[in-house]
């Protein structure tokens, strides 16, 4: 193999692919990136592939001159460091050497990286074969596409609420549920729950199609967020019994630019519909930025022992007082006016981070908070597509 590749495009691809490689593993091949160079007539492409045995990624760049086709398997951290350091070069030459070695040359530098036989990287599924049912090892139960920008918004509005390293593996990921033309994503860590609903883009969706649901690991969705470039482009999705595949780019655009594959999380997701309160009798409309500012300022005088902000709602004056108190630190009090208020006075405490996390992913200028009692969960809503449930904290 011998290629001359645009350094900036190479660095972008290596940075992305490095997010997939295993951090620690007894199999060094899972810390490597497989680079394949192909040439067909006047067209040439370079493919990067990596996997940690749970999540895999394949990327394609055409900003390359392929002089000799071939493939190599080399440690991702080594090539990443070299490409990043060669910032003075517009292009780099990559060439396979004796055995499984790889040579990288710049204007005044030559690096030799020792690699492994390319066949030792576990195989990565081909999206087209899986979607068409031509892969004998895995067949898609559902295939559909959604607009990249809308899918990215759904991920952003749910991913933040997933559990971190929880023994209940099912809540370490995001539930994706498709029913007819409706797509739904849900995440919870046991103290809060985020739910986002949208219609599937492009007028797709058979109202009589059977419902399908799966739990996607957080790592895969974080990776997918980084891959989304054009918000108007389609993302094709294929779901099998134990994996999900996302393909970005289409044949009309010159072929698939990236394919992300992930194992699904095993287990049953909690019955989330039962968690969403239906009998809230207090409804308050906030300016999103005003609410965010008040919560953040009140949180300045909280600590791990008193991690809570008290919200005191005054119906008559349409005001809310935010206050916090921490021993040996001091107290904070912020008063704001609200757009509208329905219901009676109430006092309730929340973890301020749980409130600001939700407000960060809301684009609309107004948000609605619905409450029942000081010891009952609160609801934050934005439009008709986003619902956020947050448990209160006990403030003495």
Give a description of the structure:
The chain has 396 residues and is an alpha+beta fold. The protein has helices at 7-18, 76-85, 127-132, 148-159, 218-227, 288-298, 352-360; strands at residues 2-6, 32-40, 43-51, 55-61, 64-68, 70-75, 91-96, 101-105, 110-114, 142-147, 173-179, 182-188, 192-199, 212-217, 234-239, 243-248, 258-263, 282-287, 309-314, 319-326, 330-337, 340-342, 346-350, 366-371, 378-382, 386-390. The strands form four sheets. Strands 14-11-12-13-26-25-24-18-22 form a nine-stranded antiparallel sheet. An eight-stranded antiparallel sheet has the order 6-2-3-4-17-16-15-10. The chain has a five-stranded antiparallel sheet with strand order 5-1-7-8-9. Helix 4 packs antiparallel against helix 5 (218-227). The longest helix has 12 residues, at 7-18.
Q: How do you describe this structure in short?
A:
With about 400 residues, the chain is of the alpha+beta class.
Structural class call reads alpha+beta
Mean pLDDT value: 92
CATH fold-level assignment of the largest domain: DNA Polymerase III, Chain A, domain 2
C-alpha end-to-end distance: 69 Å
**Biggest sheet: strands side by side, in what order?**
14-11-12-13-26-25-24-18-22
Helix content: 10-25%
CATH superfamily of the largest domain: DNA Polymerase III, subunit A, domain 2
Q: Per the principal axes of the C-alpha atoms, what is the gross shape?
A: elongated
Number of strands: 26
Low-confidence stretches: none
- The CATH class of the largest domain is Alpha Beta
| Count of alpha and pi helical runs | 7
Report the radius of gyration as a whole number of Å.
25 Å
Largest sheet: 9 strands, antiparallel
Tally of individual domains: 3
Share of β-strand residues: 35-45%
CATH architecture identity of the largest domain: Roll
């Amino acid at each position: 193999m011998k290629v001359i590749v645009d350094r900036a495009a190479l660095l972008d691809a290596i940075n992305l692919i490095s997010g997939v490689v295993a951090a620690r593993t007894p199999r060094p091949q899972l810390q490597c990136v497989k680079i394949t160079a192909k040439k067909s007539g006047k067209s040439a492409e370079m493919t990067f592939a990596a996997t940690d045995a749970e999540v895999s990624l394949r990327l394609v760049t055409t900003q390359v001159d392929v002089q000799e086709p071939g493939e190599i398997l080399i440690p991702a951290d080594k090539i990443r460091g070299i490409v990043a350091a060669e910032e003075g070069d517009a292009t780099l030459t990559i060439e396979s050497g004796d055995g499984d070695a790889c040579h990288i040359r710049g204007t005044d530098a030559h690096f030799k990286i020792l690699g492994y036989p390319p066949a030792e990287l576990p195989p990565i599924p081909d999206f087209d074969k899986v979607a068409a049912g031509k892969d004998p090892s895995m067949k898609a139960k559902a295939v559909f596409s959604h607009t990249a920008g809308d899918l990215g918004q759904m991920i952003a509005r749910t991913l933040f609420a997933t559990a971190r390293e929880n023994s209940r593996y099912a809540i370490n990921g995001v539930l994706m549920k498709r029913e007819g033309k409706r797509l739904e994503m849900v995440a919870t860590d046991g103290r809060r729950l985020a739910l986002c609903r949208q219609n599937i883009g492009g007028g797709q969706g058979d109202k009589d199609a059977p419902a399908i649901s799966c739990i996607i690991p957080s790592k895969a969705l974080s990776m997918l967020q980084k891959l989304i470039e054009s918000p108007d482009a389609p993302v094709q999705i294929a779901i099998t019994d134990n994996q999900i595949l996302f393909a970005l780019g289409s044949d009309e655009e010159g072929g698939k630019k990236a394919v992300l594959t992930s194992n699904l999380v095993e287990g049953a997701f909690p019955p989330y519909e039962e968690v969403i309160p239906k009998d809230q009798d207090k409804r308050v409309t906030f300016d999103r930025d005003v609410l965010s500012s008040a919560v953040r300022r009140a949180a300045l005088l909280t600590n791990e022992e008193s991690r809570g902000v008290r919200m005191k709602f005054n119906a008559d004056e349409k005001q809310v007082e935010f206050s916090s108190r921490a021993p040996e630190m001091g107290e904070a009090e912020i008063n704001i006016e609200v757009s509208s208020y329905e219901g009676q006075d109430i006092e309730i405490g929340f973890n301020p981070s749980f409130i600001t996390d939700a407000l960060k992913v809301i684009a609309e200028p107004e948000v609605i908070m619905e409450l029942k009692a000081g010891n009952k969960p609160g609801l934050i809503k934005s439009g008709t597509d986003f619902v956020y449930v947050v448990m209160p904290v006990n403030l003495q």
